[in-house]
Design goal:
This protein is of the alpha+beta class. The chain has four domains: 89 residues, Uridine Diphospho-n-acetylenolpyruvylglucosamine Reductase, domain 2, CATH 3.30.43.10; 118 residues, Uridine Diphospho-n-acetylenolpyruvylglucosamine Reductase, domain 3, CATH 3.30.465; 94 residues, Alpha-Beta Plaits; 85 residues, Alpha-Beta Plaits. A hairpin with a 5-residue loop joins strand 8 and strand 9. Belongs to the FAD-binding oxidoreductase/transferase type 4 family. Keywords: FAD, Flavoprotein, Oxidoreductase. It comes from Geodermatophilus maliterrae.
Length: 471
């Protein structure tokens, strides 16, 4: 970055908005897993859309690449600069305002740097619900959620960020601002441009604000932990509960025993909800807008049918909010607990719900053949077919040797996923970790169309280069 550009950037965002000393920049240059690191010419922290537009235009004019970044909680290296030291990290974390909350229209307009939890709290204060929920909600930002089309635990009922978004404000790669902040549920005036930017991981522009859907507040909730004999039973249980609860079934998470063991070992205060060891578990949640919706009776009738069909072998229904939180803590603690066991090779895949049992069996056999003793940590959102299929080394295995086999083992997982008509990225994005491998699993025409869109928006290739699209 030239001295002239550095001065002009400071003129735009003020001295406090530019971080260029190594100590100050360090937190922006490495992802939270410490799996991806880079260097940067500077970190720029604009405080408004106008400042973002000015920064992007200045960088475009100087031929400097821009790496948009939110809470830096991603898992695929999509918000980390490369090692050249010539890129500018554009952090949205100063842009946290809740611009508007329209209860009658059931929408909230927020800036991209708003932390997800703050949006949830703003909605709750107005008697509304913003339903996106995931483990990093206390630090991830709305812009990052949009850039990766985040899913989380409520997709079964509410959908992904694509489904939760009505409008966007985006700074384009040339510095122009596209104002699509419309809170309309019907708008048939041509292409739905916002969908191009959702899931694009900052490669087509910088999302600066969004109009998000709200829903009526949840006033009753029931949570259950169910022991299962096998993955097929999870699919059967899902069908039974859907029949009993309809769209009141808002969460259905699957966890392997290996996942639970890691949490019990490494998360303080974690306790096994059910006596005895079972190979699989489902975490089930029903919710309703009524104060007394009789959800306990609904889940109990569903579980009774599941027991009769052999789809469940034991279960516990949370007696209150504290017990429900403890059950969710088991699910949310898996990722961090697995990191304590050494290298964690993470895979975020999706297959048709009906093919989950086949996916798990085929990958189990192939991975065990490749690495005897490998520990497979499977958990995820069975209601929408999304599994986090993560791998840990055998007990006593060498960290570096296991990391060295990551490409080979990922191929095992991705080959089975592809064979079952699935996707190698369900909700984490491609970033840089899957950028090159996606060419083997995505249709060539899909990639050609994506490259064409990228060329249209960002011909110089300065917006988050090296992410999403293979070279």
């Amino acid at each position: 970055m030239t001295v002239d550009l550095a001065v002009r950037l400071r003129d735009v965002v003020g001295p406090a908005g530019v971080v260029d000393d190594p100590a100050g920049m360090s937190g922006y240059l490495t992802d939270w897993r410490h799996a991806y690191s880079g260097t940067a010419a500077a970190v720029v922290r604009p405080g408004s859309t106008a400042e973002v537009a000015a920064v992007v235009a200045l960088c475009r004019g100087s031929g400097v690449a821009v790496v948009p970044q939110g809470g830096n909680t991603g898992l695929c290296g999509g918000a980390v600069p490369d090692s050249s030291g010539r890129q500018v990290v554009l952090s949205l974390t100063r842009m946290r305002r809740i611009r508007d909350l329209d209860a009658a229209n059931q929408t909230v307009t927020v800036e991209a740097g708003a932390v997800l939890r703050s949006v949830q709290e703003a909605a709750a204060a107005a008697g509304q619900l913003f339903p996106l929920s995931l483990g990093a909600e206390g630090s991830c930002t709305v812009g990052g959620n949009l850039a990766t089309n985040a899913g989380g635990t409520g997709v079964l009922r509410y959908g992904t960020m694509r489904d939760l978004t009505l409008g966007l404000e985006v700074v384009l790669p040339d510095g122009r601002v596209w104002n699509g902040l419309r809170g309309l549920r019907k708008d048939n005036t041509g292409y739905d441009l916002k969908q191009l930017f959702i899931g694009a991981e900052g490669t087509l522009g910088v999302i600066t604000a969004a109009v998000l859907k709200l829903y009526p507040a949840v006033r009753s909730r029931t949570t259950a932990w169910v022991a299962l004999p096998d993955p097929r039973s999870a699919v059967d249980l899902l069908g039974v509960l859907r029949a009993h609860a309809g769209d009141r079934l808002t969460g259905f998470e699957l966890m392997s025993r290996q996942s639970v063991d890691f949490v019990l070992r490494h998360v303080p205060g974690a306790r096994d909800p059910i006596a005895g060891v079972h190979p699989w578990y489902a975490l089930v949640e029903l919710s309703d807008t009524l104060d007394d919706a009789g959800l306990d009776a609904v889940v109990e009738s569903g579980l009774a049918e599941a027991f009769e069909r052999g789809a469940a072998v034991d279960a516990v229904v949370a007696a209150g909010a504290a017990q429900a939180a403890a059950l969710w803590a088991l699910r949310e603690g898996v990722s961090e607990a697995q990191n304590r066991e050494g290298p964690s090779l993470k895979h975020d895949v999706t297959v048709p719900v009906s093919r989950i049992p086949e996916f798990l069996e085929r990958t189990r056999r192939a991975l065990a053949d490749a690495v005897p003793g490998i520990r497979v940590v499977t958990y995820g959102h069975v209601g929408d077919g999304n599994l986090h299929h993560n791998l840990s080394k055998p007990v006593g295995g060498d960290d570096d040797a296991f990391r060295a086999r990551a490409p080979e083992l990922s191929r095992v997982v991705y080959d089975v996923t592809h064979a079952l008509d699935g996707s190698i990225s369900a909700e984490h994005g491609l970033g840089q970790s899957k950028r090159d491998v996606v060419v083997d699993y995505k249709d060539a025409l899909d990639l050609d169309l994506m490259r064409g869109i990228k060329q249209l928006f960002d011909a110089p290739g300065l917006m988050n280069p090296g992410k999403v699209l293979p070279d």
